[in-house]
Amino acid sequence: MLQVEQLTRRFGDHTAVDNVSFDVPDGQLIGFVGGNGAGKTTTMRMIMGVLAIHGGQVLVNGRPITLADRKTFGYMPEERGLYPKQRIIDQLVYLGRLHGMSQKAARASATDHLERFGLGERAQDHVEKLSLGNQQRVQIIAAVMAQPTALVLDEPFSGLDPTAVDQMAAVLREHSRRGVPILFSSHQLDLVERLCDGLVILARGKVVGKGTADQLRGDAPVRHRLVLDGDAGWTRDLPGLYVADVEGNTAVLEVMTPGAERELLEHALRRGSIREFARIVPPLSEIYREVTADAHNVHDGDHALDFAGDKAKEFSA
Ligand SMILES: Nc1ncnc2c1ncn2[C@@H]1O[C@H](COP(=O)(O)OP(=O)(O)OP(=O)(O)O)[C@@H](O)[C@H]1O
């Protein structure tokens, strides 16, 4: 298990990462999301030791992380660092050797991964000849090829086509099945929702939500959609309901008083037939917008922290 405890980092007067805590349990894929400048890259850099920590600590299996631990991690930094003039296979073998692999094992793993990512034929090409998306694939291979004990991946999916996203997702799942804790940042919320066991949401350097998508949804009001044959405007007049929206024959509402939905449905049936009455499961993008918007509306730093404490949910690891 990888744990981030009260991590803090300042740049001059600006606190880019402010008392950030979360866990990446073994075998879990944790999505790290937040707007531009929220502090994701800075947090990952501190985990990997490429940026000094100003407060807090990183733990591996309950003890402070060491250089030796970090050497066994697979890391995909924000700044992609391949050598354009080197052959792809040579570069991967070199990077595998840096992770302690033998020449033979590094070559076998690199070749295998290049095949999996559809780049088997390109092994002898120079990196600069590859498209940006394919360079990204090579970068991913570099992070995963040495059987890492943890993965820290900064925007691994950005710039990948849907085929590469699926290949990448399959590779990550293999590593999570091996029990590897995996943290990856992304702006693609649909992807995060599809892939992740849990997520951590950052806004202005603070954690404003963490847990599974369902746990985070638990904080959102339960809404239903009612679709009728005729106009749904009359739903506004019923007691015990908050009608969030009505458009033509469709109403979106919250049940404020238990049992009010029964009266609603009886009314509806008296007026005609009901085409649909269903609970709305908000997409992750909506939850994300709500928690980050709330955080941005808070101007006082202490309140923001309180909010984070109230809202944040722990993983049950
Ligand atoms: N080396 C640096 N010097 C000064 N400020 C920095 C430095 N690195 C990051 N920052 C600031 O720290 C804050 C967090 O940046 P960070 O790159 O961690 O955000 P991010 O969540 O990764 O954003 P993005 O999604 O845009 O990559 C920003 O305000 C950024 O300007």
Automatic annotation (TrEMBL):
Keyword Protease: no
Name of a matching Pfam family: ABC_tran
Signal peptide (from-to): none
SUPFAM superfamilies: P-loop containing nucleoside triphosphate hydrolases
InterPro entries, A to Z: AAA+_ATPase (IPR003593), ABC_transporter-like_ATP-bd (IPR003439), ABC_transporter-like_CS (IPR017871), ABC_transporter_ATP-binding (IPR050763), DrrA1/2-like_C (IPR025302), P-loop_NTPase (IPR027417)
Matches recorded under PROSITE patterns: ABC_TRANSPORTER_1 (PS00211), ABC_TRANSPORTER_2 (PS50893)
Record flagged with keyword Nucleotide-binding: yes
Membrane-related topology note: Peripheral membrane protein
Residues in coiled coil: none
GO cellular component, one term: plasma membrane
Subcellular location: Cell membrane
Source organism superkingdom: Bacteria
GO biological process: response to antibiotic
Family recorded in the similarity comment: Belongs to the ABC transporter superfamily.
Protein's name in the database: Putative ABC transporter ATP-binding protein
